[in-house]
Amino acid sequence: MMDDQSINDTNGTCTNLYDHRPVARVLMPLHYAIVCVVGLFGNALALHVIRPNLRKMNSTTLYSANLVVSDILFAFSLPLRVVYYALGFHWPLGEFACKATALVFYINTYAGVNFMTCLSVDRFIAVVLPLRLARYRKIQRVKWVCVAVWLLVLAQTLPLLSMPMTHKEPDGHITCMEYPNFDRVPNISVILIGAVFLGYGLPVVIILVCYSCLCSKLRLLAKTNHLTEKSGRNKKAIGVIFCVILVFVVCYTPYHIDLLQYMVRKLRYEPDCSEQHTFQISLHATVCLMNLNSCLDPFIYFFACKGYKKKVMKLLRRQVSMSFSSAVRTSPEESSRDLDHNKIHLNSRNEQR
């Protein structure tokens, strides 16, 4: 087994942090390309469905529109990341471009988290406390909440601009937006632990509490009203809630737990090169999983929103219809060609006789 001295350069920094480059430069660009295409198409379609409802806007529509916009903006930040990973963790565009893409990347990641939290609170108020807290669902208040969310996320991510984003590795590769580039920032462990609790811990508690209360209320309504129980609407609603929670927890939890455990260890002692390399691999894997959320949201819209499902099915039917009609148009031409060919063949045979 390789000892620490063999994976340190003369300055005492680890040189094995990107040893997984050959695998990562294939899998990570493929992953982000799929996330970008599916996320862009699915969320653009969701925005198209939401747009007619903006005139008769309610709190849920406004939160959903902001969530969709954050997912679309996030998808626009991915092509440069695809190029970066395809080049084997090499960023040729300079520090400014790296900081700009990092800002867009993180702003829209955590804007999505916060708007999902807002949606859970909004649904909780609508179903559990519709009379007592109805004033908080008024559109003017919700607009200010959306502005506050964007400002909060901006305040959380703007400090990134003061941190070094790029770093030239001993092998000549210039990395961008990688954790080792932040490692020299004073008190980085404390900063990131605070970011985990504020950016993930608080939202996940709010989401779980709100949706748990919402499910309890829906079950209670189903027991007291046999018509709703027979229609199965409450079961469907509970199923959608379960999917929302599952997607959120599965996508966001591994990354934040991974980051938290490493920062806690870093406060106790300085991890060796082997531990740093393991963390770097796990960080890349969990960030990929976290970013998968932006292209999974449209699938939740498909099952939760009738308008979205109708629009998708309409597009699919139109595509099938166009394919069928083009096939029908080409088939008579082919048949006539075959007929003409047979006539020529018969005439030539008759002439020979």
From TrEMBL:
Localization, UniProt: Cell membrane
Main location: membrane
Region (Disordered): 333-353
Gene3D superfamilies attached to this UniProt entry: Rhodopsin 7-helix transmembrane proteins
One Gene Ontology term from the biological process aspect of the record: adaptive immune response
Transmembrane regions: 30-50, 62-87, 107-130, 142-161, 188-216, 237-257, 277-304
Topology term for the membrane: Multi-pass membrane protein
GO molecular function terms attached to this record: G protein-coupled receptor activity
Domain G-protein coupled receptors family 1 profile, residue spans: 42-301
GO cellular component term, pick one: plasma membrane
Keywords annotated in UniProt: Adaptive immunity, Cell membrane, Disulfide bond, G-protein coupled receptor, Immunity, Membrane, Receptor, Transducer, Transmembrane, Transmembrane helix
Pfam family, any one: 7tm_1
Family according to the record: Belongs to the G-protein coupled receptor 1 family.
Protein name as annotated: G-protein coupled receptors family 1 profile domain-containing protein
Species in which this protein is naturally found: Coilia grayii (Gray's grenadier anchovy)
